[in-house]
Predict the structure.
Amino acid sequence: MPWRTSRFVHGVPFGAVTVVVPADGRSGVQILGDPFMRHLFRALLCLPLVLGGALLVAPQATAATSVKIYYVYPDSPGSDTGSNTSLNAEYVILKNVSSTSRSITGWTLRDRTGYTYKFPTFTLKPGAKVKIHTGRGTASSTDRYYGRTWYVWNNTGDTAYLKNSAGTTVHSCAWSSNKPKYC
Ligand SMILES: [Ca+2]
């Protein structure tokens, strides 16, 4: 035996093995008993650490942005007359950049002022895009409408915010000119 039994005062019987805690606190915990059972016991001791690690990693993996603001067209062509056609030529495109279908039910798109479009029950397939127009129109799987009678996105600069159903901002895109922009 490389160690002295007298150093270990806390021997805890644990089935076929005994866990021994050193009295001086300077040495590590020793596990005594049959070699196979000792290995098994060590593996079981490690299991909670492995499971705990998986729980810590998993939420971060699922929280990665799967749907993002893809493109903004803040300045409708021509004068800002406020016609429905002009309003609808101002838009933001979202894209599912993941490889699986994603629900964006209850998600919102808004500008700095707070003009908000909220998605009803809605799913984007992998790689699919949806265009959110400022004016009125018939909603479809590819085109949605704020239904407003005046513009949302400032031509001189603004920020689009995409929030999930919990209200957490998952992506934002800022611009400082009237030029269309890939985010
Ligand atoms: Ca505009």
Remarks:
- Helices lie at 35-63, 84-88.
